[in-house]
Amino acid sequence: MPEPVNKPTFVFIHGAWAGSWVWDALKPELEAAGHRVLALDMPGNPQHPAAPDAISMAGCMAHIAAACAEIEGPLLLVGHSGGGVIATQAAEMLAERVAGVAYLAGMMLPSGLGFAELTTELMQCHPEAAGIWPHLHWAEDRQSSTVPPEAVCEIFLQDLPREQAMAAAQRFCSQPEGTRALVAEWTAERFGRLPRLYVEATEDRSVVLAAQRKMQALVPGAQVVSLACGHVPQVVQTAAVAEALLAFAK
Prior knowledge:
Blueprint: E1 9-13, H1 26-32, E2 37-40, H2 57-68, E3 75-80, H3 83-93, E4 98-104, H4 115-122, E5 137-138, E6 144-146, H5 149-156, H6 162-169, E7 175-176, E8 196-201, H7 209-218, E9 223-227, H8 233-236, H9 238-249
């Protein structure tokens, strides 16, 4: 029997260098509670090859709009890390259909502000806010980057057992700049009126806690759930993240 259409569908948006696989542990927890889950790969990801002009914010929006076109009922957008910027822009685009927006250690930023700009300012007092940036390996044309497995283990997944972290590190991929260095533009009338949840990761070495708290101050009004974990709470604290998202969905 189909679920009632008023039960929101979770739309998962991964962060840089990752993919839809980063939601594999969380997805069944939400499906068991009766929600539909849509985990997307953004344009330029190896699972979603795209033309150069589609590796952009516009390309991400077209992909999300097409993926959600056949879904009945409300949407609950969930952005992890840099996927938060994309989730924000998607919420602005689809505001009439969006029940809420959740950020997992995500980039929840004022309209027109990029995370690099926020980080540059923070680093004056919090040098650790550089996060993964010093560890990146760049393509010769500087149009894409990769994260070495050792850096994945140290910066993203330090709270996983070493063997599990290294296995996950092998799945991280090259990230085009066209879908990483993004800035959302939003209005108070659309994105600004939507309920928001911020799941902060207090031990995060990538989007450090000082950055998470700064974003919460700059874009106030979100419900906040605090978890003592690193950068990927949906992997290391799956049950707690599922609980927070299900409570928010109600």
